[in-house]
Structure formats: structure tokens, C-alpha cells
Design a protein that fits this description.
Length: about 140
Amino acid sequence: MAYEQTYLMIKPDAVAGGKMGRIVSRLEDTGLKIERMELAQLTFEQAAANYAEHEGKPFYDSLIAYIVSGPVVKMVVAGEDAVAVCRKLLGATNPAEAAPGTIRGDFGLTLDANVMHGSDSPESAAREIGIFFPA
Ligand code: IDP
Ligand code: MG
């Protein structure tokens, strides 16, 4: 067990679809602490920095266009094993494969608009928090 911070982001489809409140409730239900939360329009630069590992892949351009297509909710969530706990709560990347009870499984339908982003490691979390909540 380790105290960690993770970066989470409610994606444009879920914000536009009125799912913010229910998603935030699920995060609070875990007992993890929401340390920062802000509704924001991402810049192209922030989007590209967040998804740098995917540059060159066939879905990269549409991924960037999608994530800047409308407001998102940026969050820093903290607590014991926050990274893994949140990834588990999000479920599999493809909502069609995500288990019922997970955020992607319950609120999403397609891989390109899959409701939420969550850091995949403490190192990614530190990098992503630096992009979206610069000191
Ligand atoms: P993750 O969000 O579960 O960490 P990644 O593999 O890091 O998944 O992919 C980042 C995001 O890119 C995904 O959340 C999804 O929205 C999108 N994505 C991943 N693979 C594909 C694909 O094959 N087609 C379309 N979009 C994809
Ligand atoms: Mg990822």
C-alpha cells in the first residue's frame, strides 16, 4: 500500500451527456480524496502532451480532435493505491469489454469516446498532473 496521487479526466462525451455527478459520486464512494477538480477546455498542446505515447498510431489524430472537442473535468485524486484503484474503477479501455459496475462499462459504449482517462502508473500520474495542473 502506498499513498499516491493520480490524474483523472472525465472526457467530453461524459460531460456533454450529463454524467459528471454520477462519476464523481463513484470516485467519492471509494474513500479516495478529490484534491483538485476543474471544468476546462483542453488546449491542443495539453492534449498532445497527455497522449504523446500514442503519436503515430492510426487513432491518434481522432483521439486528439475528440479530447479537445468540448469541456472535460480535470482531477487529481489521492489516497492508498490511488492509481490502481482508479484504473480498476474505470474498467477496460473498450467500454464494450469493460465489466458492469465499472465507469466505462456502465457509462460508455465505444472505444473512441470511453468516458474517462486515468493515469496508468504513479510515474504517468506525476507527468500528467504537471501538464494539467502546473505549479
Ligand atoms: P487507456 O485510456 O485505458 O490508458 P490507451 O491504450 O492509453 O488506453 O489509449 C488512450 C485512449 O485512446 C483510450 O482511452 C481510447 O479513448 C483511445 N484508443 C485507444 N485505442 C484505440 C483504438 O484502437 N481506436 C480508437 N481509439 C483508441
Ligand atoms: Mg493509457
